[in-house]
Amino acid sequence: xxxxxxxxxxxxxxxxxxxxxxxxxxxxxxxxxxxxxxxxxxxxxxxxxxxxxxxxxxxxxxxxxxxxxxxxxxxxxxxxxxxxxxxxxxxxxxxxxxxxxxxxxxxxxxxxxxxxxxxxxxxxxxxxxxxxxxxxxxxxxxxxxxxxxxxxxxxxxxxxxxxxxxxxxxxxxxxxxxxxxxxxxxxxxxxxxxxxxxxxxxxxxxxxxxxxxxxxxxxxxxxxxxxxxxxxxxxxxxxxxxxxxxxxxxxxxxxxxxxxxxxxxxxxxxxxxxxxxxxxxxxxxxxxxxxxxxxxxxxxxxxxxxxxxxxxxxxxxxxxxxxxxxxxxxxxxxxxxxxxxxxxxxxxxxxxxxxxxxxxxxxxxxxxxxxxxxxxxxxxxxxxxxxxxxxxxxxxxxxxxxxxxxxxxxxxxxxxx
Length: 417
Hints:
Elements: H1 7-20, H2 31-48, H3 60-72, H4 77-89, E1 97-100, H5 101-107, E2 113-118, E3 121-127, E4 137-141, E5 144-145, H6 146-153, H7 162-169, E6 179-184, E7 189-193, E8 209-213, E9 216-220, H8 227-238, E10 245-249, H9 261-266, E11 275-279, H10 283-287, E12 296-299, E13 315-319, H11 326-337, E14 341-344, E15 354-358, E16 363-368, E17 371-373, E18 389-390, H12 395-400, H13 404-414
Parallel strand pairs: 9-10, 10-13, 13-14, 14-18
Antiparallel strand pairs: 1-16, 2-3, 3-4, 4-5, 4-6, 6-7, 8-9, 11-12, 11-17, 15-16
């Protein structure tokens, strides 16, 4: 049976399943179950998926035949999961995915650190392991070069472009051995044993980080996974008093719930929302040849007016390629009408509403049902939002704890008017 579940509710349901161990321990799937789920997946893609690329390189029918061949050679649940992930990943959309709580629970224990490429090196950016430091550069996973390890596993990662696919590697711990040796560029070797239960990147954050820096208020919003992040930010802005500037740091914010109140609290001029397109399927029109399998309908968002903002002073928004989904939905209006100065790196480039199929056994799939473009119709998916002022963090910045992005903003704020 098809279930349409809001993404936030789905997250709660799957989390409850993980906590209470409701996922069966059996690692085998019957051929009937495998084929039935595969046919549901194929059918849903043809009906709901809204981001078929203009590039004719993807032949969905041929890829489906290869997928069927892969899932019929083994009754292993893990093999089915990986084959399905590889099939879905070929669609090339960061908001289109397949997940299995059994795989996350059984094979997805945390790595204890995160890393992604910076200036062509895989750099540790966060770590809870004493011997693994931010700024360390990864050379090998066991005896495999890190670039080779990535190339081997990239087929399972859901992304709209290569930047996000690279970030997703270290957010997919089930692709790593349970215990492995990680070698660093400087010769240091660390043995990693994954023991802590699976967690999505960002789950560790429970609140915003707020501080007064000179005459400016700085608010780091690490996630929009819960409405408390938005509401607490608005409360801080309401009570901040007179400031020279407001700085919102959205770097690394992977999104979550759609944010509207925060935008309205800061928006003092009209702005244009996304343009959106969705797949169109009308059986009669298709039979007449009026629609093909990938026909779409595009809607331009028009103009929206401000609604009594609570702050109208100078606004700076810090972004990077970890700003994703609802984070980008938040940034886009301020970029479009220049209400804020956007500083940092280009955002991830993926957002959209999903159709969710819950298979009822711990597995679920999400398919993006509408493709977002910039208000003028320019491509956003796989491109991202470019900052007004581009500033990059380097490996040495991370190792030393320097933040050139924030430093640049503070320099701009301090300039005499």
